Amino acid sequence: MKFTLxxxxxxxxxxxxxxxxxxxxxxxxxxxTWSFSGDEGIVGLMAKHILEGSFPIYFYGQAYWGSFEAxxxxxxFLIFGINPFALKLAPLLxxxxxxxxxxxxxxxxxxxxxxxxxxxxxxxxxxxxxMWSSKAGSHIANLFLGTLFFLLxxxxxETRNDKKKxxxxxIGIYTGFSYWTDQMLFYYLIPLSLYLFYRKDFxxxxxxxxxLKTIFLFFIPGFFVGVFPEIYYRLFDNTYTITASxxxxxxxxxxxxxxxxxxxFTYMTGYLEKQSFFINILTTLYLxxxxxxxxxxxxxxxxxxxxxxxxxxxxxxxxxxxxxxFIFVPVIFILTPVDxxxxxxxxxxxxxxxxxxxxLSILFFELKKKYKSISIVILSxxxxxxxxxxxxxxxxxxxxxxxxxxxxxxxxxxxxIKYLKSINAKGGYASFWLGYEITxxxxxxxxxxxxxxxxxxPKYFNYxxxxxxxxxxxxxxxxxxxxxxxKLKNDEVKYSKKEIGNYVLFYNLSMKYLQKPLPKNKxxxxxxxxLNPQKVRIN
Length: 539
Prior knowledge:
This protein is α/β, with parallel strands linked by helices. It is 60% helix and 7% strand. The chain is built from 22 helices and 8 strands. The strands form 2 sheets. It has a 6-stranded mixed sheet with strand order 4-5-3-1-2-7. Helix 7 (140-158) packs parallel to helix 9 (186-197) and helix 14 (277-300) packs across helix 17 (356-370). It is globular. Mean pLDDT is 86; it is low at 242-246 and 521-539.
C-alpha cells in the first residue's frame, strides 16, 4: 500500500500521533508516583500555592527556571484535585504540544512524509524522552517552546512585508517569555542566530542596517515585554536565592563532559545493554544506524557546510537549521560549567529530540528513493529496537506485566506516608529528594525540611523548627543514618524507631535538636551537611 498524505489530512495525522503517544504513556499515568522526585514535588507545591493566590515567578530556590509548568499544573489541579496524577498531566501536555510543533516545523522545512515519520518517532519516544516527558520540572517545556520558536521564526520569513514588523514584535514577546521559562532556550537561539547571520539580507551592510533597526524597534521591545516576570523579580522581588550547581569553567571539566555526552547520547537514543544475544545484535545495528544517519547528514547538507565554513555569500538552506541545532546541543552542553553527573544531566540534552528523529527520517526517505528494501529494513530495526527498549523499560520498573497489561507499581513511600499520618506526625527532617515529595503528596499536612540538600522553600524551616517533636527520616543507605543513631545513644535520648521499606523513621525524641539553618547566599544554598555534634545545638 502506498502511503500518502492529502492536503487536508493534518488534523487526522495529529490525532493519530497524539493517540499513539497517549497509549504508550498509560503505564506511567496509571502509576503517577513512579520515579517521583523532590523536584516534581516542588512544582506541585508551587501549583498549589498558585491556586491559593500566590504567584511564584521562578521555580522555588532557582531564579533561572520560570513557573510556566507550575501554572499549567495548577489548571489541572482545579479539575482533578491536587495529586501526582494531575501533576503528571502538565509535562504530558507539553510533550504532546512538542509533537505537534515538531510535525508542523518539519513539514515547513521538508515535506509531510518526513514530518510524519519524525513526529511518529517522537511519539514512540525512547525511554529517556518518555521518562522526562512524564516528570514535572524536567525541561520538557523547553523542548516544546524551542521547537515552536523555530516554527514561528521560519513563519516570519513567509509573512507579508506589511505584517513583518508586528509579527517580529510578537516573536520578541515569545522569545522573552521562553527565556524566562527556561534559559536553555540558548540551544535554539544560538543556531538560529548563526543561520540569520549567513542570510544574504544580513551579510551585506546595505541590507543589514535596516534589519538591525527593525530588530531594535520591534523585536527588542517585544522581548522585554515577554521577559517582564524576570525583570520584576530582579528589581522588586528576589524572594528565593539562586541554587544553581554551576561550577567555574575549567578545561578538565570540559574534556570530561565530552565522554559524558557520548554516554548520555547513547542512552538517550534508546540503546539497550546486557540483553539477550538477539537484542544485543538488534541494538548494535540500531546504534550503527543512528551514527550512520548523523554521518549521512554531513553529506546531505554538504553545500551548506561548505557555505558555512567558507563564509560564502550564498544563502544556507533553511532546512540546514536541522543540523545546526543538532550540532550545537552537544557544544553548548559540553561548554556549560555544570558538574558532569551522568545520572542527573540527561534532561539537559532534551533539545536533541527536536531534530534527531528528523535526521533518521531524512536517511530513510533518501535511501527509499534508490534502495527501498534497505530503507524498510532500517526502519524495521529502528521500530523493533524502540519497541523492545520500551517493553524492557516498563517491565524493569514493574509498570507492565509479561502480557503487556498494566501493572501496579509498588510504592513504598505510600506506606511511609500512611504511617506518618497514623502517628499524627506534623513535620520533620529528611533529604531534599524525599522531603518535598512527601510535603506535596500530603498536601502540606506533613511538612519536611531538608536537613541536607537544597533549601528550596525557606518558609518550611521556621515551621519545622517550631515543632515540639519533629521526626527524622533516612534511607537505609544514607551515611547520616549511623551518625544520628550514634548521637542519640551518646546523648542518652529516648526515641521510637520504625523501619518502613528502605526508610528508617526516628520520632518521639525525648530531647529536641535545634538545627542550624542551611547557609545561604545568592550563588548557592546547597549544603550536604552531617549530624556532627559540633554542628547541632541541643535545646
